[in-house]
Sequence to fold (202 residues):
Amino acid sequence: MNQRTLGKVAAGAAVAGLAIASGANARPSDWPATTDGRVEQSGAIVQATRTMSLDLPGNADRAFPLFGPDREREWSPDWNPAFVVPTSPGQTPDGAIFLVDHDPNPMIWVMTDYDPAQRVVRYVVVRAGRTVTQLWIQVVPVSEKACRADVTYRYTALAPEGRQAVEHFVHAFPGWKQHWESHIAPVLAHGGPAAAHEHGRP
Fold:
């Protein structure tokens, strides 16, 4: 990916208002309070918002890094991002841009915020000509040995093909909570990954 393309992606994220000031909640306060927010156009869903709360058996500070682009490898066997920035895998407040699912049309992931103090990470995911996905995650302590991760997705279609992807997301999302919890829990509880299994992706 050349610098001009990277610049366009970064500019698009800024225009979308995705880089929210540090300390804010991961999920914007003006989003619908329910998990079934949607926007329709000509009878088709063009945007859908869903939220899930993961119940995890581990300390919040230990769990939070597992939602970063590099540490996710520990619980998602098929997760293999190709980092553009930084040039080697990493997750810091400086952000990151990486590619996933490279053939034939890669998803461009931009980590716009990574705040360990607030345990907030935010992404925007672009599938050119198809969808833009906004992803907000915040990890909240429940006790010394348990935490909750609030995960919000907002899918927006860019074209008819993208509308099909949004509709698929709406139908598939109810099963994501169990899959994510079953993958992350063994890493927190025992330090080892669960068996490989497909889970939700933009």
In short: Confidence is low (pLDDT under 50) at residues 1-23, 194-199. The domain at 3-190 is CATH 3.30.530.20 (Alpha-D-Glucose-1,6-Bisphosphate; Chain A, domain 4). The beta strands are 37-41, 44-56, 82-85, 96-100, 107-115, 120-127, 131-143, 146-157.
